[in-house]
Amino acid sequence: MVHQFFIDKRPHNALTYEEYSTNMHKKVEETNAGELNEKEKQMFEYTKLNSHRSKRIDKTYKVDPELEAAIKSVSEKQIWMIITEDWCGDSAQNLPYIAKMTSVNKNIDFRIIERDKNLDIIDLYLTNGTSRSIPKMIAFNEDGTELFQWGPRPKEIAALVGEWKEAGIEMEEIKEKLHLWYGRNRGKSIESEFKSLLSK
After folding, report:
1. What's the CATH number for 4-153+190-199?
2. For a disulfide at 147, which of 82, 139, 142, 200, Cβ 3.0-4.6 Å?
3. Whole-angstrom Cα distance, residue 118 to residue 111?
4. 56/76 Cα distance (integer angstroms)
5. How far apart are CA 179 and CA 166, in angstroms?
């Protein structure tokens, strides 16, 4: 099934990673936090943190050679659409890796769609059938046939977060543990998962 949003070329006309990153960093530099209400300030602080996180990964990450070979083996044109928002912590910890991966093969067009402006699209890709969790990535070939999905976070940390919630750990502590895990994992889990997806 080819969805109408693909026929309308909304993924094709969505943001490149460079555009998305520039917009996020510009927002951090130009926003006057004093003019924001409490909710807006909270979201802005998340975006500020994410700007730093993504810059760090952009500067330091090199694609694993085995994964690079798998990505370079993609011989047909594909579009990898990721649904997210700049305030999403999981997004900042994963998008830079995916962007760097896709950069090694010109056959892969990596595009970013903002969730809250495209609720009809995220509602087609709910996590566990109920949650608009992000980031969510869907890969398509040129005619709009879906190839695979990924997200909203690597399976290992998704399972750990589930365990922490069941144990009654407060959300702020969960967030700390989550980002500590990402810092230690350094993209190894997402690399492994993409190797598996591409091998299929």
Report:
1. 3.40.30.10
2. 139
3. 14
4. 31
5. 19
Instruction: Give me the pLDDT at residue 200, please.
Output: 80
Of the candidates 59, 140, 144, which has an alpha carbon nearest to the alpha carbon of residue 99?
59
Give me Rg for the CA atoms of the chain.
17
Q: Which DSSP string do the residues of 27-88 spell out, in sequence order?
A: HHHH--GGGS-HHHHHHHHHHHHHHHHHHHHHHH----HHHHHHHHT--S-EEEEEEE-TT-
Query: What is the tens place of the pLDDT at every residue in 14-51?
Result: 999 999 999 999 999 999 988 999 999 999 999 999 99
Question: In terms of pTM, does the model score above 0.90?
Answer: yes
Alpha-carbon span 50 to 174, nearest angstrom:
17
23 is written with which tokens? 């917009």
Q: Where are the domains of the chain?
A: 4-153+190-199
Q: Taking a C-beta distance cutoff of 8 angstroms, is the pair 92, 50 a contact?
A: yes
- Give percent of the chain above pLDDT 70: 100
Q: Which two tokens stand for residue 61?
A: 């990450």
